[in-house]
């Protein structure tokens, strides 16, 4: 598992709390995708399991460390939804929490990791809450969540919330420069489109992903001035929600440009496109467009069994009515 330099400070602070016997038994880590919270949790877990830690580091040689490295430590529990499912149910939680009240099989700590606490159903969260209120001795809970506000308030209140904030932009750009051959504008755009999460930006810069973004950007000008349905082939893919996000970022950038905030746009590698949108569309049309696209994206992500192609087609027709209202009136 990759370790990232921006994790060092959080790791030192958390392990120092354990060394001082002041650590909270349940740590809720808030982090954006691509911040490496899984690596941070893994590092903390290895230290907790290690029987002979060397300061802030696990020794790497004791039996517990060897089991962790092999992924077979019996007192390390990973709680997540089954493959193909999005919800983590009560049965899985009960199965793990019942084991926590027995002696640890290796005589050390017991650690429960929830890679995505947002998967918990309400019943599962309540079942976990009972154990969080009175945890067994030497038992630790490590929870990750992109949006802790979506969790039950009672669950959040039993945890120490830890925000894994994105590093300084210049630090992230320097790190990206060492990882890939992309130019400064491309690295900056990828980083800002990833909300500052460096590992997510690096993934976006991979050739296949970057080409997909370029395809959307290249198709947009002609679609806005002509037939918006021509955008459908560029959007109708499994990652349609991400592609909608790229359109939204361009619309937000166009507003920034109109207001004299060109220095703060995200799509710095597509400045000409941002300028074009800003000159073609009034602020009211951009605002209405942005609201529509965000609603479409929300439905795409949250409506069960949604017909993606039909939803996108309807959205493009609705966008046509905003951008070319007179043409819509004539055809009607």
Automatic annotation (TrEMBL):
Describe the reaction catalysed, as an equation. Answer: DNA(n) + a 2'-deoxyribonucleoside 5'-triphosphate = DNA(n+1) + diphosphate
This entry carries the following GO cellular component terms, namely:
DNA polymerase III complex
Q: What is its EC number?
A: 2.7.7.7
BP terms from Gene Ontology: DNA-templated DNA replication
Q: Which residues form the DNA polymerase III delta subunit C-terminal domain?
A: 208-320
- Mind listing the UniProt keywords for this protein, alphabetically? DNA replication, DNA-directed DNA polymerase, Nucleotidyltransferase, Transferase
Gene3D superfamilies in alphabetical order: 1.20.272.10, DNA helicase RuvA subunit, C-terminal domain, P-loop containing nucleotide triphosphate hydrolases
- Enzyme class, broadest EC rank: transferase
Q: Does the keyword Transferase apply?
A: yes
Q: Which InterPro entries match?
A: DNA_pol3_clamp-load_cplx_C, DNA_pol_HolB, DNA_pol_III_delta_C, DNA_Rep/Repair_Clamp_Loader, HolB_lid-gammaproteobact, P-loop_NTPase
Q: How does it assemble?
A: DNA polymerase III contains a core (composed of alpha, epsilon and theta chains) that associates with a tau subunit. This core dimerizes to form the POLIII' complex. PolIII' associates with the gamma complex (composed of gamma, delta, delta', psi and chi chains) and with the beta chain to form the complete DNA polymerase III complex.
> What's the protein called, per UniProt?
DNA polymerase III subunit delta'
